[in-house]
Amino acid sequence: MQLIPCPWCGPREETEFHYGDQAHVAYPPDPSALTDEEWAKFVFFRANPKGELAERWTHSAGCRRWFNAVRDTSTHTLRAVYRLDEPRPVIP
């Protein structure tokens, strides 16, 4: 079982968390001005790299807060965990 370090509660088992999608995706300034195709791309298309990806997670069985995590999608290793009000850390 993998331990995920909640920024508020500390390390907890992965079963307490839920994935929330890619992090740092900017909402369109005027969604009504988008075509159906542009809106569909915003809603459904996300990055799917092999390697590091910033993601949103929630500690659903604990404090119920949202946070961001940088995870290596090929190994599932968490490289960084940070609160929503913090910038994405630079990872060497």
Plain-language structure description:
The strands form two sheets. A four-stranded antiparallel β-sheet has the order 3-4-5-6, with no helix packed on it. The protein has one helix and six strands. With 92 residues, the chain is mainly β. The model has no long low-confidence stretch (mean pLDDT 96). β5 and β6 form a beta hairpin.
| Total count of helical runs of at least 4 residues | 1
Give the topology string: H per helix, E per strand: EEEHEEE
Summarize model confidence as the mean pLDDT: 96
Biggest sheet strand line-up:
3-4-5-6
End-to-end separation: 26 Å
Shape: globular
How much of the polypeptide forms β-strand, as a percent range? 35-45%
What Rg is obtained from the alpha carbons, in whole angstroms?
15 Å
Alpha-beta content class? mainly beta
Main sheet makeup: 4 strands, antiparallel
Which range best describes the helical content: under 10%, 10-25%, 25-40%, 40-55%, 55-70% or over 70%? Answer: under 10%
Identify low-pLDDT runs: none
Count of β-strands: 6
Write the layout of secondary structure elements.
Blueprint: E1 3-6, E2 10-13, E3 18-22, H1 36-44, E4 52-58, E5 66-72, E6 78-83
Antiparallel strand pairs: 1-2, 3-4, 4-5, 5-6
Short description:
The protein has 92 residues and is mainly β. It has 1 helix and 6 strands; from the N terminus they run βββαβββ.
What are its keywords?
6 strands, two-stranded antiparallel ribbon, single chain, mainly beta, 92 residues
